[in-house]
Design brief:
Elements: H1 6-23, H2 44-57, H3 60-76, H4 81-111, H5 119-127, H6 139-160, H7 162-174, H8 187-198, H9 208-234, H10 239-268, H11 274-280, H12 284-304, H13 314-319, H14 321-339, H15 341-347, H16 358-361
Length: about 375
Amino acid sequence: MTPVSREISDSIRVARVIGILGLVIIHVPPWRIDLGDPPRAIGAFDLIFLYCQELFGRASVPLLSVISGYLMVHQHGAIGLLSRLRKKSRSLLAPLVGWNLIAILLSAALSRHLPYTTPRQWADALFAFSAEPAIHPLYFLRDIFLCALLFPLIRLGIDRAPIATLALVAILSLAGWTYPVFVGSGPLLFFTAGVAIALGKVSAEPDRLHQQMIVVAALLAPVFTTAVLARMLIDPASADWLKHAFTVGLFVERICGAWFVWIAARWTLRQQWNPLIQTIEPFIFIIFCSHVLWLGAAWHLLEAVGMGYNDPLYPLFFFTAPLQALGAGLAVAAILRRLSPVLLGLLSGGRAPQPADWARARRPAESSS
């Protein structure tokens, strides 16, 4: 395979930053609308809360899965299975276990008892064996490792019958038949799509008109899923059929959202603040792994002083969450670099970020070739 061009590589770096900072929004406590007891009517902020979660929070997993499949073809397609698994064990499984262990130890310190008792619970908490781990979003690392394990089979299917392979994986994913082999419903499907894009079986470069249509769809699809979620809260009795509507809307939302972030990343390359995004990128994996810990700790402190979802200041906590996660991730990296560079390397998947050159980040961007 030809090497990834500099423009595509830079676009991937920017897309990772945008996607993961957007993902933070869907993990802001208390995670879902709190209507109180007895329940109050849904207000304007409740709808904004849901819309932002759907708009910003749903694109990251499909986008990162596509990128993983794409890079697997270009960077790992020629190496042997054992070498590939060694690399992926270091970059995915080691941080999966390390960050989950930190979360468990913090929970035990706060509650003064271990949160898990059975071997199955420990396997899930550390390895996402059959359910989300202690840090829920890190199931993604486990699922992408399995995709790497299945890569030769996926590539064979895409090479010989791309449409049939993509259709089969889409059916399995939408029907939920990939569980419990895969914890999430999206990584396998979008990883396979990334492999198809890298092999030239699927085009990922829409023309200007199609880009505009994708942007509109990416903004409108969350309106539909937000309306469905609000209806489920208002009328729980109708939740069964609404779940099916939400599943369809979520599928469209993920595709359009991932494409929208990619379009935004390509546009960002031409902006003067592109160097700032590029400077943040080496830290984005740590931000991805640690943001739930920070948000959980911050929420614990806010609850201790009597602040909750219905507090007038809660929107400030909600909307600044990506900046909070960014600051916390940078701080964690700086502390670990001083205390234990080895631990920093393990928790960052073997790519320990170097101290950021913020002076360079403030310089105007050079035009991409």
